[in-house]
Amino acid sequence: MAHETNGTATLLAEPLPLPCGATVKNRFYKSAMNEALAGRDCAPTDAHVRLYRTWARGGAGVLVTGNVMVDRTQLGEPGNVAVEDERDLAMLRRWAAAGTENGTHCWMQINHPGRQSPITINPHPLAPSAGTVDGGYGRFFAEPTELTREQIRDIVRRFATTARIAKKAGFTGVEIHAAHGYLINQFLSPLDNRRTDEYGGSLENRARFLFDVFDAVREAVGPDFPVAVKLNSSDVPIAVKVNEKGSVPGGFSEEESIWVMKQLETRGVDLIDISGGTYAKPVIQTNAGAAEDRRRGVYFTDFARRVKGELTVPVALTGGFRNAGDMERALGEGITQMIGIARPLALVPDLPNRIIRDGWRGSVDLPRVTTGITALDKAFGGILVISWFEVQMNRIGRGKRPDPRIGGLRALLFAVRQHGPAALAPRRRRGRQ
Question: How many folded domains does the chain comprise?
Fold first, then answer.
């Protein structure tokens, strides 16, 4: 990291009022990363408490947890927390208390993986439609069972229950995960959703499940509790060939995403967290480090500019923010109201304080994650980078400092030691048929 200081980041320090009436103290939005800290019981741990206390003291306005699954039989990644009842309420309260120190909001991200659940974790996944996954990664995912209407209603109820427990535990908001190829995203995408009932076909029908979940969650937590939604801009991963409409042929398009956002706005969403990509090339799974970051810049800015004139609800833009200049520029242009940051905070947990309080004007350069063995890097590229950042979060959760010198091979060994062979299965699929 470069070490320059120059003035105060005033835009980043401004509070943000939300539609529900809550106020966030500044514009730093710690986006979700799977902490991989839960044990086989899917319960939060002391490591969650230490990690989120460190981040809260680091100065962010909002901390969004990693995936908290609404069904402990349907997990998306090794080490997921699952909340389907109050059995872990005492530890959830400790987690929430730590994450809300220093006037910080701590929002629980609630999710269901659908078919995006590795076979080593779940041999019986559920999805909007049945169908195998093609390509080399297909062997890592079991063929899902198509959800019945009764099962859909049960999952909607589970989202509401998890949100209610989050509020009871002391979390100050929830984020519904409707992106990155998980269950709600599967309903939205016609590439996954081939249903012919009221949950399939037209966009209105494909969005019905998301709207049912949102309405149930809002009813469970009340009108004055922040409810955010993480939504794909489209099914487009960065750097893939798309058609003239900016979408994968047959996939969830930017036009459809904007329509869904407008509907969520009328339903009372408090913030929309813009993301994107599919299983073909998830945008967060690159191990190229700072060089790739500089080439790509801030993710999804073109789409955010399109959304700017369409919505009044606050937007969080995540991906590629590495320095205060880019952050202030995005806020100043009005293309986002919150600066989403994830991986840099696994290396510099107090980055918000450094920028707002200390006037730091340097850049967080993420390292290129490599095992030093080309074949391993190629085989486990996405898993490698995820595991490397999980190592850093694990260190913070054990009261240690992050260590950017750790190599990729050590990250893979750590993942296997923590989670067994399941850790080496891809967390997201690569294609479908």
Answer: 1
* Domain that includes residue 62, residue range: 10-366
DSSP state of 421: G
Which CATH number is 360's domain given? 3.20.20.70
Domain annotation covers residue 193: yes
Helix ranges (H only) for 123-225 are: 149-169, 183-188, 203-206, 208-221
Give per-residue pLDDT as tens, 300-346.
888 889 998 899 999 999 888 999 999 999 999 999 999 999 999 99
CB–CB of 48/363 below 8 Å? no
Q: What does the angle CA 90 – CA 167 – CA 313 come to, to the nearest 5 degrees?
A: 150
Mean pLDDT, residues 46-57: 98
Has residue 16 been placed in a domain? yes
Q: Convert the pLDDT of each residue in 350-380 to its tens digit.
A: 999 999 999 999 999 999 999 888 888 888 8
**For residue 22, what are the CA distances in angstroms to 103, 107, 221?**
12, 13, 13
Nearby residues of 323 by Cβ (< 8 Å), 6 or more positions away: 361, 362, 363, 364
